[in-house]
Amino acid sequence: MSHIHDYEELVLDALEVVEFKLIRRKQDLEDDSLVFHPLMAHQIFGESESIFGYKDLRVRILYTAGPLHIYVGTEYSSRVNEISGGDIKADNVVLTIAEKLPEGCFFINMDEFLKTLDKADKFQPFGEKLSEHQVTDAQGKERFFEIYHCDYKVPAFLKFFSRLQTFILWFVDAASYIDIDDTQWSFFVCYEKYKNDNGDYQYATTGYTTVYEYYAYPQHIRPRISQVLVLPPFQKLGIGTSFVETIYKHYQSQKNVVDMTVEDPSEDFQRLRNFVDARLCKGLKSFERDAIKKGFSKEMIREAREMFKLNPRQCRRVYEILRLYYTNLNDEEDYRAYRLDVKRRLNAVHYKQINDIKKMEKANVDTEWLRARLPTPMQRIEQLNEEYQQVESAYKQILEKLRD
User: Fold this and answer.
1) Per the UniProt record, which EC number(s) apply here (predicted)?
2) Is the domain covering 4-121 a CATH 1.25.40.10 domain?
3) 124-264 falls under which CATH superfamily?
């Protein structure tokens, strides 16, 4: 009887054995340079992100590059079922993945999958084209991208989108599928326009953004950017920046939009948004060097909201980034004035807590336990310095991009 430790080598890391590929033509099936791996697998294989029971396992998840029809299959040299005489069973990998995919949107038969590839050259973007940009990639090749705004009312688009959003389980932490029946969702999808082997133009899907249009009294909306995903083969090509700028432009012209917000932004996305916003506001009158040196103003809030639908909190962040941009770090007085300005904002929350406690004490409420939770003055100074350093280093990354 084999012992369980004989099988330890059959516990595999899903992040290594799962591979994705976007297929533009049949030759791509054999091209390993196109492979990319998931960033996470816990939403599919649990916290350990492991798969049990195989030797030399490859889990292949293939998508046709434009319409995103999906094939899921496995290859392996042996399986624990055979080794153990059937006593121990290997994980059913295809079934585990299939349970997370929308019904009827994937193939487990390669021939059927290839039939969809034959028709993929007919694929056209859904919706209305809002913007285009071109980039020269690391290999010196000119590449063309287009962003479209898509309508939830088109059934074929919703089917396509349900395939597109399957990527988030592997690439966006804590993400979940959105309810596409909710009419307040707005969809923005980016495609690469490229020439195929016959010299005809075709489209490959590169990523998407969803925006939720919250109702604001009496007949306004507050659009909130919810998910932003650029597929790994298309990262570092300016698509994220182009998404944010395109979405801003789309909502800027709409009189009923109050301002734009972002749902729980990741650090990367917050940095991207700060860069876009700072670059836009840099050209506004209230954000010019002389105005900025006088401190944060209501005029900045008004102008940033009117021109770019920025909310006051984001406006303040942009002010701090641009004020640092105009601050001479070698001039002790100039730099000190900047640090004090940011620290005042960082300290506001702390002072609010103290004032709240004082109000409660006036009303004869016992606040001893609350006071015990406050940092001592020395601790607060240390905390404040640490908070400030984090803010400044985040801003400096944005300034590097702004100066490029």
Assistant:
1) 2.3.1.48
2) no
3) Gcn5-related N-acetyltransferase (GNAT) (3.40.630.30)
Query: Longest Cα pair distance anywhere in the chain, in angstroms?
Result: 82
Least Cα distance to 316 among 331, 328, 301, 302 occurs for: 301
Determine whether 263 is an active site residue.
yes
Is-contact 395 321, C-beta < 8 A? yes
- Beta-carbon-side half-sphere exposure of residue 13 (alpha carbons within 13 Å): 6
Contact present, 126 and 172 (Cβ < 8 Å): no
Does the domain at 276-404 match CATH 1.10.510.10? Answer given as: no
User: Is 130 annotated to bind ligand?
Assistant: no
Q: What is the pTM of this model?
A: 0.87
Provide CB contacts within 8 A for 197, sequence distance 6+.
25
Q: Are strands 220-230 and 201-216 parallel, antiparallel or unpaired?
A: antiparallel
Alpha carbons 14 and 19: distance in angstroms, whole number: 9
Cα distance between residue 308 and residue 322, in whole Å: 16
d(CA 359, CA 102): 54
3-state secondary structure of 137: coil
Was 241 annotated as part of a binding site? yes
List where CATH 1.10.10.390 sits in the chain: 276-404
Annotated catalytic residue within 75, 263, 288, 299: 263
Residues 6+ apart with CB under 8 A from 86: none
**Was 239 annotated as part of a binding site?**
yes
pLDDT string in tens for the chain (404-residue length): 344 446 788 999 999 999 999 999 999 999 999 999 999 999 999 999 999 999 999 999 999 999 999 999 999 999 988 877 778 899 999 999 999 998 888 999 999 999 999 999 999 999 999 999 999 998 999 999 999 999 777 889 999 999 999 999 999 887 889 888 888 999 999 999 999 999 999 999 999 999 999 998 889 999 999 989 999 999 999 999 999 999 999 999 899 999 999 988 888 889 999 999 999 999 999 999 999 999 999 999 999 999 999 999 999 999 999 999 999 999 999 999 999 999 999 998 888 888 888 888 888 888 888 888 888 889 989 999 999 999 999 999 999 999 98
Residue with token string 């059937």: 86
